[in-house]
Specification:
mainly beta; four-stranded mixed sheet; 60s Ribosomal Protein L30, Chain: A; 17 strands; 13-stranded antiparallel sheet; 13% helix; single chain; Porin
Length: 362
């Protein structure tokens, strides 16, 4: 049980992921709150009157909250520092040798370092994520009291201690339309505060006041968190392309051909080679001053990567034109990345018609 949190966190980060990443690049902040469901911890007491058995703290549901600051790498992975707080009320102390009345609150707070992977499942409105974290958590037993119903014995403590902690995270984000960078989040978190925390207290056993100690073992917490996240450098959706100015009619009309590519590919398909061959053949039938080969991508992925991909696509088409007999000296090659979209879309949209190279015969 003690290693459950470590196993869960490791599994979340090493499970093969088939979906592609939803890139978040740069700084982001997040906050959340929700239901805190502690898994009743076992306690080893010391002090006269407790008996020799192991006790258990029976807690009510409570609430949690957290704040996080993180940084996305642009490839789906992001890392964050999180501060958290949780509170629940003590319902009963179980396992005492006599019926007791119990009261008090149990509070925990700490700092966690999390690693999270966002996934793109093909939806514009929901992006699942998996993650895990490690850090340190302090737990305070605040005015925790156990009093025998028949009198003669009472115990109280109001101290705190800390321990290393692990957590696993599973959730999803929901982008807010028309507010770039803002998303709602919902996730489930399992935290294992490793056992060994100790708490000093006082025992009144028939009027004899003695010091006592409570040792908590393996605090497991389950939390459901609803929150918001804002990424600072998400650009607004691109405006529709402005209409091009009417050019002065050329002596001979330009001829253009479109060659389309698979997602994240610069390889020519058989259909693409046939179109390039047709353009090469037609270039010998008209007066040619130059042939422009312009590469483009869709908006999915990172802009710098898309710029390089568009150049590679244009070079692949230019090379095929040369193999089909077009002199290299009349060919100009340019890459425009995700600009000049054929079909206007927002960010991170896979649009097949935007993954293209245009051959223009002048």
């Amino acid at each position: 049980m003690r290693l459950r949190g470590a196993i869960l966190a490791t599994a979340l980060l090493t499970t093969p992921i088939l979906a592609t990443a939803q890139p978040i690049s740069g700084l982001y902040v997040g906050a959340g709150a929700g239901l805190h469901a502690p898994q009743n911890p076992k306690v080893t007491p010391s002090g006269a009157g407790f008996g020799t058995g192991q006790l258990q703290l029976n807690e009510d549901f409570g609430f949690n909250s957290n704040l996080a600051v993180g940084y996305g790498l642009g490839n789906g992975f992001r890392f964050e520092i999180e501060g958290d707080f949780a509170r629940s009320d003590l319902r009963h102390v179980l396992g005492t040798p006599f019926p007791t009345a119990s009261s008090g609150t149990i509070r925990s707070y700490g700092v966690m370092a999390n690693a999270i992977f966002d996934m793109d499942i093909g939806s514009r409105w929901v992006f699942p994520y998996l993650g895990g974290g490690a850090g340190y958590q302090w737990t305070k037993l605040n005015a925790v009291n156990a009093t025998a119903l028949n009198g003669g014995f009472s115990s109280s403590t109001s101290t705190q201690d800390g321990a290393f902690a692990l957590q696993g995270i599973f959730g999803a984000s929901f982008p807010i339309p028309n507010v770039p960078g803002l998303s709602l989040t919902a996730d489930y978190r399992f935290m294992d505060i490793l056992g060994g925390a100790k708490y000093d207290g006082v025992v009144d056993n028939g009027g004899v006041i003695t010091a006592s100690e409570l040792k908590l073992h393996n605090q497991f917490d389950h939390d459901v968190v609803i929150g918001v996240r804002y990424a600072f450098n998400v650009p607004p959706p691109p405006a529709p392309p402005a209409p091009e100015a009417t050019a002065t009619p050329a002596p001979a009309p330009a001829r253009s051909y479109l060659v389309f590519f698979d997602w994240d590919k610069a390889d020519l398909t058989e259909r693409a080679r046939a179109i390039v061959k047709e353009a090469a053949d037609n270039s010998t039938r008209v007066q040619v001053t130059r042939i422009e080969v312009n590469g483009y991508t869709d908006t999915s992925g990172i802009r710098a990567y898309n710029q390089d991909l568009s150049v590679r696509r244009a070079k692949a088409v230019a090379g095929e034109l040369v193999r089909d007999g077009v002199p290299r000296s009349v060919i100009s090659v340019q890459g425009f990345g995700e600009t000049h979209l054929l079909v206007a879309t927002g960010r991170n949209v896979r649009e097949p018609q935007n993954r293209r190279v245009e051959i223009i015969i002048r």
